[in-house]
Amino acid sequence: MTTKFVHNNHAQLDTKNLNVYINGAQILKDVNVSIPKGKITCIIGPSGCGKSTLLRTFNRLNDRVEGLKMNGEVNLGDNNILEASSSKLSEVRRNIGLVPQRPCPLPMSIYDNVAYGCRIHGIRNKKKLDSIVEHYLKAVGLWEEVKDRLKNPASKLSGGQQQRLCLARSLAVEPSYLLADESTSALDPISSKKVEQLFTELKKDYSIVMVTHTLRQALRIADHVIFMYLGEVIEEGSAEEVFHHPKHELTQEYLNGAFS
């Protein structure tokens, strides 16, 4: 049976008994999580616990990892993403976008960076593309800074500007979910604060899942928290519950700085 993926901003994202192996080593163990709509979900835990692997499994970005095997379910609505054929991955990633750890503008102009995904999905009308580029550059607070140099290479922007450009590029295809893999870790404090503020504003229209090593950042912006340890989800719940009333002793130890 062919799995059909359609663009759906109302589809629920969750996992059921998700296991991931790389070269025989189990990286994720029976992960069951449900990502709430219209909120910022922060995935926290010590280095090597599987945070980024989980995040990148949500839209199959781990597929090219040598020795990768997966079983279980990653569901977007009624569709198991793990069953999507290679030809359907473009639509999966349109629904679930990613802002990378480090700014990675494409080797083209500022304008073409934002328009890139739209063109892939069939938008060719210049007036429509102009409108999309302006709208999403405004959405990330970059329009006033670049409106007179849209044809300039994106590589000429500062690191913080490049990261906001990458965010605009992800938003331009109107995803339902936005994944952020430590997206402020390579930025200076001022640029990092701008991106955090953007995420807080954007959750009105998008569901955001963010991996962070910084507990203070999670405390500032998280609505929902997933705490992982050694490939397992130890605790999941609202930020209020996990940070102030943790149910698991391991969660409390991590929050108290016993390990990192």
Automatic annotation (TrEMBL):
Ribonucleoprotein is among the record's keywords: no
InterPro entries cross-referenced by the UniProt entry: AAA+_ATPase, ABC_transporter-like_ATP-bd, ABC_transporter-like_CS, P-loop_NTPase, PstB-like
Gene3D superfamilies in the cross-refs: P-loop containing nucleotide triphosphate hydrolases (3.40.50.300)
Origin superkingdom: Bacteria
Biological processes per GO annotation: phosphate ion transmembrane transport
A GO molecular function held by the record: ATP hydrolysis activity
Name of the protein described by the UniProt record: Phosphate ABC transporter ATP-binding protein
This protein's UniProt keywords: ATP-binding, Nucleotide-binding, Phosphate transport, Transport
Domain spans labelled ABC transporter: 13-255
Pfam families in alphabetical order: ABC_tran
One Gene Ontology cellular component annotation held by this UniProt entry: membrane
UniProt key word ATP-binding: yes
